[in-house]
Amino acid sequence: MIVLDNVTLTYPGRTGPVTALAGTTLNVRKGEFAAVVGPSGCGKSTLMKLVTGLIRPTSGTVSIDGAEVKGPVKVAGMAFQHANLLPWRTVLQNVMLPLEIVEPYRRRFSRDKAAFQDKAMALLNVVGLGAFADRFPWEMSGGMQQRASLCRSLIHQPALLMLDEPFAALDAFTREELWCVLRDLWQEFGFTVILVTHDLREAAFLTDTIHVMSARPGRIVETRQVPFPRPRDLDVCYRPEFTGLVHELRNKIAEVRQAA
Ligand SMILES: Nc1ncnc2c1ncn2[C@@H]1O[C@H](COP(=O)(O)OP(=O)(O)OP(=O)(O)O)[C@@H](O)[C@H]1O
Predict the structure, then answer these.
(1) Which fold, 1-72+194-260?
(2) What is the DSSP letter of 85?
């Protein structure tokens, strides 16, 4: 369970303090797929940095499974808008990178390398990249790179996956393909996800719960349960109740933008 309790975050800022979040409260259950949506600059990335312990709140608390987050957390995997694969490493070597860094894998890396490679290959197979393990990132499309990035964020079996606009740079068809890849990974491994996105269809297709943030200083102003039964396929996106939910979320964000 991830809990943000009345969190305020003020950056010192070059020209004076900037309050990015003010009194933000958020609960995400273990195994839940949650999205955070809101107007540009409302503090979504700040919220991600707080949960992963990259920054500390100015006031309030962030906790994971009852323990207060006081520094970078080991239980999280992360993926961002750009895949950021290392160009001199093959796809397989990129996916294995966290195992060379994160304990307890790091100390076992030389001894268990063959088993780790099998594990990385199994993940690459799940996302349809099994045949591309020896390619370099620059030999692959943006969508393929993002698939590899998802594998890299999951190789150390994190209990929590933090995704900051992971598909924003992809074309619409590739994006929908990647939604299904992420859906399948989540269904297979059962980790908790917090997804930051501007794409309301993406949030409605993938998640259990959507949290809407106000304009800066951000706080959660509305939480919507996503009622569509699972397993979901892309057809759900064309149902009237799906379009209705997306429309309502859009109106809510327009309203909070105007209120700013
Ligand atoms: N290091 C920093 N110093 C000062 N202000 C910052 C810093 N980082 C972020 N901010 C400000 O805090 C606010 C929230 O930023 P954040 O990146 O969290 O928003 P966001 O919702 O992720 O934005 P977007 O949707 O555009 O990606 C913004 O006004 C931003 O300018």
Answers:
(1) Rossmann fold (3.40.50)
(2) -
Closest alpha carbon to 179 in 205, 200, 161: 205
Ligand 1 neighbour 11 (Cβ under 6 A): yes
Count CB neighbours of 110 within 10 A.
8
Q: What is the pLDDT of residue 198?
A: 93
Prediction pTM value: 0.94
Domain edges within the chain: 1-72+194-260
In angstroms, what CA-CA distances link 128 with 50, 79, 87, 122, 191?
A: 33, 18, 20, 10, 20
Cα of 87 to ligand 1 centre, how many Å? Answer: 29
Cα–Cα distance, 34 to 121 (Å, whole number): 28
- 113: tokens are 């390398």
| Distance from C-alpha of 256 to C-alpha of 109, rounded to nearest angstrom | 49
For residue 20 and ligand 1, the question of a CB distance below 6 A is answered with yes
DSSP 89: S
Nearest protein Cα to ligand 1, atom 30: 41
100, 110 contact by CB (below 8 A): no
Ranges of residues in the chain with a pLDDT under 50 are: none
pLDDT computed for residue 169 by the predictor: 87
Look at the block and give the residue holding tokens 């594990």: 119
Mutate to test the pocket of ligand 1, among 7, 18, 48 (most ligand atoms within 8 A of CB): 18
Structural Rg of the chain based on CA atoms: 19
